[in-house]
Write a structure and sequence with these properties.
Length: about 475
Amino acid sequence: MLSGEPFIPETVTVHLGTPDSGAENVTVSFPEYIKNVASSEIYPTWPENALRANIYVIISYVLNRIYTEWYRARGYHFDITSSTQYDQAFVYGREIFENISHLVDELFPYYIRRENNIEPLFAAFCDGDAVTCAGLSQWGTVALANQGKTPFEILQHYYGNDIILVKSEDIRIASPTYPNAVLREGEVGRDVQTIQTQLNRISRNFPEIPKLPEIDGIYDALVAKAVRTFQKIFNLPQTGEVDETTWYQLSYIYTSVKHLAELQSEGLSIEEITRDFPEVLREGDSGNYVRSFQYYLAVVGAYYASVLPIQITGEYDADTAASVISFQQTYGLPQTGIMDRRTWNDLYAAYLGILESQPSDPCVRLYPNQVLREGVTSENVRILQQYLTYISQFDSAVPAVTDTGYFGPLTKTAVQAFQREYGLNVTGIVGAVTWDAIAGIYGEIQCGAGKRPYQAPGYIIRAQGT
């Protein structure tokens, strides 16, 4: 399911038959699709207010199919069918009525949704003569228009008084939501938040799935457990990781339990699609998210001669943008200088490759790609505790902790004390930024200045031009 506010797609891919038929797929512009369906579903001689009401309905219907990824989440490579048994009529290559064409040009950015909901309304409809349904009656709109009803009053007659018309100024290519990278324990970001939100709602219908206490974008052991349970229930390999199959099965089940593709939708609230993690970062941005990706970029720059080195400042400045461009060039990505999802995925993969091949050196230990927080038990926690205890000998503000390997309340207190002392966000959670700071202070005290992963020998060799 698409996250965020709905938008108008540039194109619509239509399957010219029922979903499982071997019919052709065709891709047409969004306005062209609406004009075709309107010319196939309604009569150009109807009152203009009836035509307008029907066009709003046609637009909302297809936008709901696209927003919920109704077909794509089930493995189909199209947005909607041309079959009136499943969707709305589309006759490829047909002539378009002139008055309908003009109306669509005016109305295509508008769609219907319910108050306090985000998703386009699944605006069910039927002809109202040969077939009746719970939604709009196409022939009924004619009678209402002849009574002097406005298009919006006609829509309220069928869908209730809690609907609104929304104009989207956002027109762009609708790309599949799967991030093209397997999501697993240790990752953070908007995609993880989407998974957490979906799992928690699905768990109401499938209580065996454990409830996640926080929607924080951190893929920890609890998320992995919930994913494994979901995979077990729906007969998927129980990996605890979200690959493309699991991603779209989550999307499909989430859409189904919330009835997002039905007239009586439970609805998506603004809170459900609000994300703390920005979708993209670009020059001029600042903060902990910038600092975090700069860490990954700086490490990759220490091992890739073609990636420009950067300082970890938390400011997305011109040097950072230049480094991002050099990384994008190295990986064959569009050279935008923007940290978008595709660039992040490749940067993350490059970092993992370095992490797996890094020689053991306690003075320049990379972030282990595991978010460390209260309740986690691992060897990485033990190393963290050893670092904190060593630092405590030189900085009394940081308490010592026993290296048990268990991240308990005392370890959280020590982490918070370190974060407070060194100007970091006081969360008690150790991600890339806090790990870099703790490991960096430890390395400088224990091994001397300049002991950071992005100041490793690989950086020196690259600087010499080899």
